[in-house]
Amino acid sequence: MNIKSIVPFAVVMLACLFCVFAGCTGTPGSDGTETATPTPTQSVSHTGSAVESVVDANNMFAFEIYKQLSGENSKDDNLFLSPFSISSALALTYEGAKGETADQIKSVFYFPDNIETLRSGYQEVNAGINAGDPEYDLEVANALWAEETYPFLKEYINTAKTYYSANTTNLDFINQPEESRVSINDWVAEKTNDKIEDLIPEGMIDSMTRLVITNAIYFKGTWVLQFDKNMTTEADFTTPSGETVTVEMMKRTDDDAVYGYTETDGLQVLEMPYENESGKKLSMIVLLPKENDLKAAEDALSADNFEEIENSIKSKQVKVYFPKFKLETEYLLRDILIDIGMPAAFSGSANFSGMDGTTNLFISNVVHKAFVEVNEEGTEAAAATAVVMASGMSPEKEPIPVFRADHSFIFMIQDDETGNILFIGRISNPAE
C-alpha cells in the first residue's frame, strides 16, 4: 500500500496571518482525537462589482469570526483582529485549492463563485489601500515563502504575484528552519513598523515545512477631531463581569465635537473619522451598548443590521468620553476554521494540487496576530478599518447626546469608500 507524503503549509497575518504547509508520512490529525463535525456555512452569490463582492465577503467573514472568537473567550477578554488580513491570506491559499478543499474555503470566506471576480476584486482593493495618503499610513502586503527545493507550479506563483502582489522568496526550510523563521518574522516586523514581532513562534517552522503564506496590514491615522491631552483624566470603567477598573478617559465636549452618530433602543453608535488628503476616508465605528451588556452590540453584527445602522448615521454634536487603550492579540485559528466549515484543508484528504500538481500539501497551522493603540492623536494598528461621516448638522433642536464609553464596546476600523472592515475588536478592559 502506498503511503501518501503529506506536506503542511502556513499562513500569517498582522493583523498578520501565517499558514504552514509541511511534509510527513502518515495522516495529519490521526492522533486518536475526534474531529468535530463542522457547521456548514452558506455560500453567497454576489452581484455588483468585483470590489463589492470581495468587500461583502470580507465583512460577512468579519462578523462570523468575531462571533466565534467571542464565544471561545471570556467576556472580560479584549479581542482584536484583522478579518481582511485573514481573508487575504486564505484567498492566496484558495488559489491553490481544488475539489472539496476549495469548496469549503470558498464557503467559509464567502468568496464569489467566479475566480476572476475574486482576483480582480483583491487586486483593486489592495491597490486602493496601498495608494497612499499624506495624512495616514495604510499598507497591506502579501508574500510567499517556499522551500527552495520544492517544485511549486509556476502558474500558482505567477497568479500570486499578478493578482495579490505576493512575491515568492525561496528559503532553506529543510536545513535552516530557524533561520527561515527569523527571516519571515523580520519581514512581518518591517511591514508593521515593528508592532508585530515574532509572529511565527519557535518550533512552528521545521524541516517538513514547504510553504508559508503571509499577509500583513498596518495602519496609523490621526483623528480629524483630536482629543486634548490636558482633558484626559482617570475614570472608572466597568468590565462585563462588573469589576471596576481605572482607565485614562479622553474627552471631547466642545461645540466643534461633531461626529457621525446614531442610536437604537439598546445601542449608541459613534463614527470617528481620520484625517485624509486624498479623499479616501477611514473611520473608527464604535458600537456602545446602553447597558453593560454586549448583546445589543453583537446583535448588530450581521450584514443587514450593520448596513441599516450605517445608513442611519448623521452628523451631530456629541459629547464624547472615550478610553485610551493598547493591546496585542494572537490567535491560533486552525480549530475555529475547522469548526466553521473547512476541515479538509487541515487533513490528509486536503487537495492543494493547484500549488504543486500533487495532493501532498495540507495546512498545519494558521496564526493571526494583531496590535492596536488608541490615544488622543489617533490610532496605530497592525490591522485597520474606517467609516464615512455624513455631512451637515441636524436642524432640529435636540439635547446633545453623551457618548460615554465607560463599559465594554465593539469597534471597527473601516475604509469608508468601499465599506471594507479592515479591523474589528472588543474592549472589555482597557486597563489590561
UniProtKB/TrEMBL annotation:
Coiled coil: none
Cellular component terms per the entry's GO annotation: extracellular space
UniProt domain Serpin: residue ranges: 63-430
Superkingdom per UniProt: Archaea
CDD domains cross-referenced by the UniProt entry: serpin_thermopin-like
Molecular functions (GO terms): serine-type endopeptidase inhibitor activity
Family named by the database record: Belongs to the serpin family.
Designated name of the protein: Proteinase inhibitor I4 serpin
